[in-house]
Amino acid sequence: MILIDGKETAGQIKLEIAGEVEDIITRGGKRPHLAAILVGNDPASETYVNFKVKDCEQVGFESTLIRFGEDASEAELLDKVAGLNRDTGIDGFIVQLPLPSHISEAKVIESIDPSKDVDGFHPVNAGRLLIGLPCFQSATPAGIIELIKRYNIPTSGKHCVVIGRSNIVGKPIAALMAQKREPGNATVTVCHSRTKNIKEMTLQADIIIAAMGQPGFLTEDMVPQDAVVIDVGTTRVKSDKTKSGFKLMGDVDFDAVATKCSYITPVPGGVGPMTRVSLLLNTLKAAKKEIYP
Prior knowledge:
The structure is a single chain. By secondary structure, the chain is α/β, with parallel strands linked by helices. The protein folds into two domains: 28-113, Rossmann fold (3-Layer(aba) Sandwich), CATH 3.40.50.10860; 139-271, 3-Layer(aba) Sandwich (Rossmann fold), CATH 3.40.50.720. The protein has helices at residues 6-26, 43-59, 74-86, 105-111, 123-131, 139-150, 170-178, 198-202, 254-257, 271-287; strands at 2-3, 33-39, 62-68, 92-95, 159-163, 187-191, 207-210, 227-231, 235-238, 246-249, 261-264. Strands 1-11-8-7-5-6 form a six-stranded parallel β-sheet. Strand 9 (235-238) and strand 10 form a beta hairpin. Helix 1 packs parallel to helix 10 (271-287), helix 2 (43-59) crosses helix 10 (271-287) and helix 6 (139-150) crosses helix 7. It is globular, with a radius of gyration of 19 Å.
C-alpha cells in the first residue's frame, strides 16, 4: 500500500509556483493577485480564507481579503463582484461559500467574470470542463487529477467509481476521469445517496473516489483488493483523543480499507492540501492569461 501524500505534493507545487512568480517579477511582469470575498462569520469559512491568504504569501502572490457582515445585501455583494470584474489589478477572485441564506449563490457565481473565476464554478468554466476545453477547473477535482498524475497511477481503461454528485466535486471529477487524455480515459460510474447497489458498484472498481460527505461510509467489504482509493471527505466529528474535542474524518474507514489498497489518500493530508494549491495554480494561469488570453 502506497500512501498518497497530498501535503508533500502540495508543498512541492508551491515551490514550483514560487519559482515561476520569481521569473515573472524578474522579467518585469506583474505579481499575481488573488482576492477573496468573505460574507458573515462562518468559522470554517474563516479558516479556509485565512489558509488561502497564507498560501498566497508563501508563493509570492498578492492577496486581498474583502469582508462583509452577515446582513450584507445581495445587491451589495453583486456590486463588489462587478467591481472586481473590472479591476485590472485583480487576476482572479473567489466568493467563499456558503453564503447567508438570503443571498442566491447561483446568482453570485454567474455574475463572476469567467476569466477571473479561479474557483471554476461559473457555468462557462463548468461547461468548458465537460467538453474538454481549457478552463479553470474546480479546485478539488483538479487536485485529485494532479495527485493521480504525479503518482503515475494508471487510469486508461480502468473502472472509476465516484461516490457523490455535487457540482463542486462529484460531477467535475467524473467528467475529468472520462476525458480522452491521461489522466483520464476511464470508464466512470457515478453513485450517490439514492443509488441502491453502491457496494456492487464499488466492488467492480479499480479506482474509488469517495465524495459523499458521510464519515466512514466506504468500508472494507466495499473495496476490492488493490483498489486506488481517493478520500475527499472532511467532516468534523467529536473525539476524546484530541485537545479540541474534534477530529477530521474522511468518507473512508481508513484503517480497515488501507490494507486492501494499492494507493490511498489520508484525511487530513490527502486531497485537502491539493485543493488549496489548485486555487494557486488557477490564479497563476489567470495572471498569465493562459485560459482566456
